[in-house]
Amino acid sequence: MATLSLQHLDKIYDNNVQAVFDFNLDVKDGELIVLVGPSGCGKSTTLRMIAGLEDISAGKLLLDGKDITQTPAKDRDMAMVFQNYALYGHMTIYENMAFSLTLRKENPNVIHKKVLAAAEILGLTEQLNKKPAQLSGGQRQRVAMGRSIVRNPKVFLFDEPLSNLDAKLRGATRREILLLHKRLNATMLYVTHDQTEALTLADRIVCMSMGYVQQVGTPLELYDTPANLFVASFIGLPPMNFFHVTVSEDALVGPEMNVPLSEDEKKTLAAYKGKEIVLGVRPEDIVEGGAVSVKVFSNENLGMNTLVHGHLGNSNAAENKITCKLRGWCDYKAGDQVKVTFVKKHFFDKDTTNAIRGEK
Ligand code: ADP
């Protein structure tokens, strides 16, 4: 059983840089939380405050209801897995995994059982007598996880654990972490700058920018109903398209578009009639056929889909750039005109950048 409660956490470094502002989160027992955001947004700092590797400048941290804000790292009962594995090269895999328990002077029989059990879970049984240099990057990362598992910590903390692996191994190791999470049913916090990792791993995602939490929710919530322009642009690949448009009586009007609004959309935008808003459209929510005209400048075949990059209407203006992820194999040439429809639209207030949800 392990719940974590992060209450109004701030981090101000000695040089007066504030890296984290008023971070609030209640992590449920067994939950896998992914902190995601661009480099420098405060993810690692947050994780390191939880681990006890950085002081908490303000706010409170509770583990199972107990205040551990001032508790030293070694007494927090958490295990951290880093991106650079930090394995001991002169020790075998077995010794690496047993190391923390040996230090604690645990009973050798107990250590043996724990190491074998962790090796079994991670598929490392055959590797126990080898040295780290004889293992692949993915296997080394598993050893790093094994070292955490044997300690049976209350909370697992992962700091970009896959960033040193190549793309193929990243996918495979990601699936292993997911299986591990299911198998151990452990509370985990995982830091990454990669939105794909966040979407595929998380029970809930915390999306951060510039030290602030932008949105907390399930992967589907962040994808389907992003809270603001930042989350909308960060989650989803290729990223969402954005256009400045004006809300008329029954359409969205831009320099190169006039898109009719459904009754529901009119209701959502009731308070914005006559005003300018930001329209967001995901590339995959664009289909061929319809009233919006796109002038193609490149066509990328992905197999099942084609990415068509172009501009709205007849313009070459940067603000009219659009990427469409069309179904099937398309063969458009630069200069072709394609007619498309936006099957789902996202609306944002251009001043606050918050999503416009309308009256409920
Ligand atoms: P992320 O993990 O999202 O890449 P970090 O938490 O590492 O971001 O960093 C957040 C901000 O805090 C950055 O502006 C970074 O430069 C700053 N920072 C990180 N560590 C320190 C430190 N030890 N001293 C001063 N500033 C730091």
Descriptive account of the structure:
This protein has helices at residues 43-51, 93-103, 108-122, 137-149, 167-184, 195-201, 219-224, 229-234, 263-268, and strands at residues 4-12, 18-27, 32-36, 58-63, 66-67, 78-81, 155-159, 187-192, 204-209, 212-217, 241-247, 251-254, 257-260, 276-281, 286-301, 305-312, 321-327, 337-342, 346-349. It is α+β, with helices and mostly antiparallel strands. The protein has 2 domains: 4-233, 3-Layer(aba) Sandwich (Rossmann fold); 240-349, OB fold (Dihydrolipoamide Acetyltransferase, E2P) (Beta Barrel), CATH 2.40.50. The strands form 4 sheets. A 6-stranded mixed sheet has the order 6-7-8-3-9-10, sandwiched between helices. A 5-stranded antiparallel sheet has the order 13-12-11-14-19. Strands 2-1-4-5 form a 4-stranded antiparallel sheet, covered by helices on one side. A hairpin with a 2-residue loop joins β12 (251-254) and β13. α2 (93-103) crosses α3, α2 (93-103) runs parallel beside α4 and α3 (108-122) packs across α4. The radius of gyration is 24 Å and the shape is elongated. The model has no long low-confidence stretch (mean pLDDT 94). The structure holds adenosine-5'-diphosphate.
